[in-house]
Amino acid sequence: MGVLIVKPLILKMTKICFGYPGGPMILDHLNFHLHAEDRIGLVAPNGSGKTTLFHVAMGLLKPISGTIEAFGKIRESEKDFFEVRRRIGLLFQDADDQLFSPTVLDDVAFGPLNLGKSKEEAMAVAEETLDFLGLSGFEDRVTHKLSGGEKRLVSLATILAMEPEVLLLDEPSTGLDAATKEKLIDILTSLELSIVLISHEYDFLSQTARHIYTMDKGRILFDHELHIHSHQHAHLMGSQPHRHV
Predict the structure, then answer these.
(1) DSSP state, 61?
(2) N or C: which end of the chain has fewer CB within 10 A?
(3) pTM, whole model, 2 decimals?
(4) Average of per-residue pLDDT across 206-230
(5) Mean pLDDT, rounded, for 14-25
(6) Helices (DSSP H) in 38-172: which residue ranges?
(7) Number of domains in the chain
(8) Is 14 strand, coil or helix?
(9) Range of the domain at 55
(10) How far apart are CA 49 and CA 28, in angstroms?
(11) 34 backbone dihedrals φ, ψ, rounded to 5°
(12) Could you tell me what percent of the chain has a pLDDT over 90?
């Protein structure tokens, strides 16, 4: 009989409820577990709560009720989430929310500087990260003049430069041409990190995630509740709006 290996639990969200005042519940008693080495794809219609899930997990939004446990500790206060944000890298859906420095190198070095590295160390880490992502030569580029796809990759560089243990990536392939998207797939599959990816692109998720979940009525439905087509297209029992091409 084989030995069941239980991987360390990184993030545990239990019965999470969240909604804006006067509005409907966006997350309704949602449960979610993330273990070490997990690679999870999350696909669902706009407005289903995917981005909200990420922001609650990072302490950027406070749930109405429920518990968040990260790295073995219950997280409630703003102070509790300092460690979470150091160890989990969040890629925002809009790259302009992530990039704010005059140049690419300044943006990528910002995180390492805030982790206590010297200016020389932070610049070295930033240059190494840009090289890893195939962005050597971008150091002095003006951030706000980059294309949408370039901003996505630089945003990813700002996260990787902080050497996180977990990546939460919100639509990472948005705005990328086919060649750059293939490069991103190669990068993500080479990383030995726990990753959760939000994407509307089924083919992208099929190449980067080991499990594909969806959301419905404020809760996560796991892959055993999905119908997976042979062409690696997943949707909830045929009811999720979609189109075969």
Answers:
(1) S
(2) N
(3) 0.86
(4) 78
(5) 94
(6) 50-57, 80-87, 104-114, 119-132, 148-160
(7) 1
(8) strand
(9) 9-95+163-235
(10) 10
(11) -125, 125
(12) 76
